[in-house]
Every structure is written in C-alpha cells, then in structure tokens.
Design a protein that fits this description.
This protein is 40% helix and 24% strand. By secondary structure, it is an alpha/beta fold. A hairpin with a 2-residue loop joins β3 and β4. α5 packs antiparallel against α6. It starts with a strand and ends in a 5-residue tail after the last strand.
Length: 290
C-alpha cells in the first residue's frame, strides 16, 4: 500500500501545531508588509497581522516560492511514496496553478487538488484527505474524490467595514462613503473560484440574518438530498478578535442545534481584502470515507 502524505497551506487555518497533531504538513503563506517578508504563523501571528493592518501598513499577499514548495515535497518524499497537496482555491491565488506546474517534475508522485476551498472548508478537505489516506486510498484516488465534490460548498461573509474593499480597489470611494452613511453591510459569497458580492443588508443584525437564511435555503434546495449533519458540515469563521466572534458561533449553534459547528479565523489572504470584524458561515457536503 502506498504511503501518502497530505500537504496544505496555512490558508486552511491549520496551524503548524495543528498539523503535527493531525499528521499533515502545512506550508506557511508569505506576506509582504511595508516591503518586508513575513510567513504566516512563523514570523507573523494573527494578532501582529491585524495590528499592522490597523496601522495602515501596506500589506500584499503572495504565494509560496517554488523553491520552498519543492524543498518541502522533497523532504516529505524521503519518508512517503506520494503526496496529496491541497492549496487554497485556484480562483483566489496563483499558488494552486504554480503547484500543478511544479508537480509535473515529480513523476506522478505529487497530486495537486484544485477543489476550490479556503479557510474552514479547506480544513475539512484536508481532514477528509487524511482519513482517505489512512483508509488506504492512493494519491490519485484522493484527488479525484475531493475534486468530484469541489462545488458542493458555500461560504457567506459579511463585513464590519468597507475600508479594505475600497483600499483594494474592489469598491469605489463614492460607493464606500454612501455605504458607510447608510450602514450597509455587504454579504459576499465564495463558491468555486470567486469571491463575489451576494447581497447588501442595512445593519449588522440584518446581514447576519441574511446569511443564516441563505444557508438554510441552500440546505433545503441544493442539498435537499442530504440528511443534515450526516451529510453536511456547517462551520463558522471570522476575522479579528475571537472573543467577539464567539457570539456569532453561539447564534449559529442556536439556529442549527443538530450540527457540531467548528469556528476558526478566516485566511489572512482573505482578511487582507475585507479587514477585521468580518463573520462567515459555511455549508459543505461531507465526503464519505469508506
């Protein structure tokens, strides 16, 4: 039986310590802050990231250097026969495409999964890949199974501020000013390759209600053939302070009491564009491991 290693990046929300506990490998994502290079969770903590963001530092996302990716793979292949590499969604970063190109040099020993996940949904894919590897599946089989359900996941996000959408050029200054005056809270959606506008709500309470109602509708329509927690995950995510975000998790637990809801910080690569104080909810189809 082939010995398969599971690799992901820190956009999954899996820390280096989590990775060791789970038995997976985590590639730290790089960031340039005022032209200085940092690596998530290695030389840059969540707290430091938001401190720099609030001080209006110039923050730019990047992708892992090809040499760093290949060194990690080379080290792993000294012990393992194959690698399943699960990067963040190809629609949100070029790191997936780069990994696919690099994998061509590894004689089919490295399979890169483009299942278009990020944050808690990417984490679920990593957990399922590890379970599949433990069950004896090879790298090609794991890649095929994960990509088969790649579009069966939704993320909805509402923002506390429009500042960072304006700063990143995703919102005009005029629209941001009007939105601030009217207390508009955009609800964004990540499904497949894109982070897109989904709807607008007047106020925080209304935005959260919109997300909860949308998740319920998705469960009732797109996942109507699923039997609740037996077939689906509902998870939460946030940017900024966890203590403040715990209230959001409690709201979801009250609305969906039958689900075991996991919550973690949103990827810093997403946080760069939406700022602190965001809240997210996800629904993802479970992959049956047999």
């Amino acid at each position: 039986m082939s010995k398969v290693a599971i690799v992901t990046d820190s956009n999954s929300g899996i820390t280096q310590a989590d990775g060791k506990e789970m038995g997976v490998f985590v590639l730290p994502m790089p960031f340039y802050i005022d032209d200085e290079l940092f690596f998530e969770e290695i030389t840059l903590t969540q707290e430091e990231f938001y401190q720099k963001m609030e001080s209006d530092a110039d923050i730019k996302t990047s992708q892992p250097a090809p040499g760093d990716v290949m060194k990690l793979w080379d080290d792993i292949l000294k012990e393992y026969d194959e690698i399943v590499h699960i990067p963040m969604s190809s629609g949100l970063s070029g790191s997936c495409e780069t990994a696919m190109m690099l994998a061509e040099e590894y004689d089919e020993k490295v399979k890169v999964v483009n299942n278009q996940r990020i944050s808690v949904t990417q984490r679920r894919s990593v957990m399922e890949a590890k379970a599949l590897a433990d069950a004896g599946k090879n790298a090609e089989e794991i890649k095929a199974l994960l990509e088969e359900i790649k579009l069966e996941s939704d993320i909805y996000i509402t923002l506390d501020t429009l500042k960072y959408l304006k700063k990143g050029g995703r919102l005009t200054p005029a629209a941001a000013a009007i939105g601030t005056v009217l207390n508009l809270k955009p609800v964004l959606r990540i499904k497949g390759e894109k982070l897109d506008a989904f709807s607008k709500a007047r106020g925080w309470k209304s935005a959260k209600k919109t997300m909860i109602q949308t998740i319920q509708k998705v469960i009732d329509t797109e996942f109507s053939d699923c039997k609740g927690p037996e077939n689906l995950y509902i998870d939460a995510a946030y940017t900024g302070n966890q203590e403040d975000a715990n209230e959001w998790k409690r709201e979801l637990e009250e609305t969906f009491p039958e689900y075991d809801i996991y919550m973690a910080p949103l990827s810093l690569s997403v946080a760069c564009h939406i700022g602190p104080g965001a809240r997210a909810v996800t629904v993802t189809k479970r992959l049956k491991v047999s």
